[in-house]
Amino acid sequence: MRKLVGLPIKPPKAEGSDIQLKCNYCINECILSKDDVSYCGLRNISKKETGELPFPSRSKGYIHGYIDANPTNCCNAWFCPAGTSRGYPDYSDYNEPEFGTYSYAAFLYGCTFSCLFCQNYSHKQFQKRHLFDSETLANQIVKNEKITCLCYFGGTPEAQLPFTINLAELILKKIKKQNAVRKFRVCWEWNGSGNKALVDKCMNIAIKTGGNIKFDLKSFDEKLNLALCGVSNSRTLDNFKYLADNYFGTRGKEMPEMSGCTLMVPGYVNHEEVELIATFISEINPDIPYSLLVFHGDYQMRDLSITPRDQALKCLKVAQKYLKNVHLGNKFLLGFS
Ligand code: SF4
Ligand code: SF4
Ligand code: SF4
């Protein structure tokens, strides 16, 4: 599957070779030699420049941005200030969902996982990508005062974390200079495989701005994660626990700083798997929001049906046994309103 799109089947580890490029932005920790392409597909040594990783870098990113009317279909819109009355007046000017405003949807190319069921696989269409610089993007975003939040997703932001941090900081600096009272939240939706120090920086920005972070917890069993997503989930679980232990609850119950989310892949991610994930979350804090998503066939798993209603209800029930804040997403696929 990865060969079909020109990607290596495993993270390159060119130890011992003379020319090397090392990246530690995610669990894959690629070490590239001359002809290698990174696991995420975004880096190769021929573009190496002095002092910094080749593009994408801190100041330039492969991104496709567009505005999305609030409330959006962001995975955390069921509890965030854009989709509810929460966060008013500290993080939102609206004591209701933010109708008439926009979220800036920042789709980032490249992914550090390789899921068979990927529902955003256009992140692998590298021939369509363009490199944008953060200064230009920040100016565009700041200029539109109807934009109240920024959502990084993809692919997954991990492969371009320094770029996402830099862009967010630039926007916040420009807003502060122009209009100190404007509310602007920054959120990340990711698979959780990132470098811990960078992940920590993202969380600090999300907390300060009233944003949040959504973790895709694809499975609890590492072998299942390897089978479905090509990469271990060990970093994801570590980062989830680290951020939750250190930051969850710091803004109070009304404004959760982070959430977990699981796609109920028929026959693979069933109620037993969901029970393991829900137990893991509840042992950290049972108030952490958790969303279960109904699956629909995509990418290399188009032959699967949507999540059967029985499986969805069993998963929901078992998650609610452990957690206080459970949500069912994509329920229209099951005919629920
Ligand atoms: S970017 Fe954040 S604040 Fe905006 S809609 Fe998405 S989750 Fe809500
Ligand atoms: S982590 Fe998300 S974007 Fe990346 S391959 Fe998996 S489903 Fe696709
Ligand atoms: S972000 Fe990309 S290049 Fe860096 S370690 Fe991860 S997969 Fe490799």
Secondary-structure blueprint:
Blueprint: E1 21-22, E2 31-32, E3 60-69, E4 102-108, E5 131-133, H1 134-143, E6 147-154, H2 161-178, E7 185-190, H3 196-209, E8 213-216, H4 222-229, H5 234-247, E9 258-264, H6 271-284, E10 290-294, H7 309-322, E11 326-329
Parallel strand pairs: 4-6, 6-7, 7-8, 8-9, 9-10, 10-11
Antiparallel strand pairs: 1-2, 3-4, 3-5
Residues 111, 113-115, 118-120, 123, 154-156, 191, 216, 229 line the site of one iron/sulfur cluster.
Helical segment tally?
7
Helix content: 25-40%
Could you report the average pLDDT, rounded to the nearest whole number?
93
Helix- and strand-based class?
Answer: alpha/beta
Strands in their spatial order, largest beta sheet: 5-3-4-6-7-8-9-10-11
> Stretches where pLDDT falls below 50 for ≥5 residues?
none
Termini separation comes to 36 Å
Descriptive overview:
By secondary structure, this protein is of the alpha/beta class. It folds into two domains: 1-46, no CATH class; 60-334, TIM Barrel. It is 27% helix and 17% strand. The protein is built from seven helices and eleven strands. A nine-stranded mixed sheet has the order 5-3-4-6-7-8-9-10-11. Helix 2 (161-178) links the parallel strand 6 (147-154) and strand 7 (185-190). Helix 1 (134-143) packs across helix 2. It is globular, with a radius of gyration of 20 Å. Bound molecules: iron/sulfur cluster (3 copies). One iron/sulfur cluster is lined by residues 70, 72, 74, 76-77, 80-83, 103, 149, 151, 185, 187, 211-212.
